[in-house]
Amino acid sequence: MPTYEGRNLQEAIDNGLAELGLARDEVTVDVIAEGKRGFLGFGRKPAVVNINKIEINVDSFNIAVPAPPKHHHHDLPHPHLPGHNPEKVTATAGTATMALADDPPDPSPRPAAGMTNAREQHIEAALAQVSAYVVNVTTALALPTTVKIEKTGRDKWTFFLATDREGLLIGKHGRTINSLQYLAQILFSHLTHSHDTVELNVGNYRERREQILEKLAVKTARDVIASGQPIFLDPMPSFERKVLHATLADNSYVITHSEGDEPKRYVVIERKKGSVI
Prior knowledge:
Helix content is 33%, strand content 22%. By secondary structure, the chain is α+β, with helices and mostly antiparallel strands.
């Protein structure tokens, strides 16, 4: 089991990360020895940690992106969203046709059953356009994808993407899927002028990533408590930072806050002033 040393815990962690070539949010840290400062150089003991890489089934890649295929707006019929069930829409890569799940495509745009006002119809049309956009982008990336949309919160729409190449679509550390989600959110907000949020998920990646972030938060809090020194995590999207803040919200010994500007904003975890261990 490889271990790494330093004059204090933070230095030991930094030494291990430098040797492994990994970022702080890619690993878990087990404190083996907290180290001692000693007196006049006598009795000094180094801090010792064990660092393990957090395993995520994600492949790094390089893709030459071809020019996206041209599609005309009139080729994209609006989906129909049931009024009393979770809204579901499918998009077929390559053809960029839109249809209700388990229902044949209908080229004639008309209000879906259960739609009671213009806003819902406007949201429906925007979802169709965003779905087509996601399909076109993934097709251009040579990642054939189908899309199913469900309303997973009061103001939240989740696009469940299915592909045979999940690792490539997720990208290293989620960079590809996060970038595509960012673009989809901008398009949706531009079309609807609403505060609804869009989330893209591939093969339960969001759920797995949330579990990893929760473990990262707990491990980092332990390191902060042991060393008394703040730890600055790597930049991450706002929805991932929220997981860290929420995980440690009730912790009696540490506090969290974010610093920096998007897209390089990061979480800082530090000891609470006056906390007694």
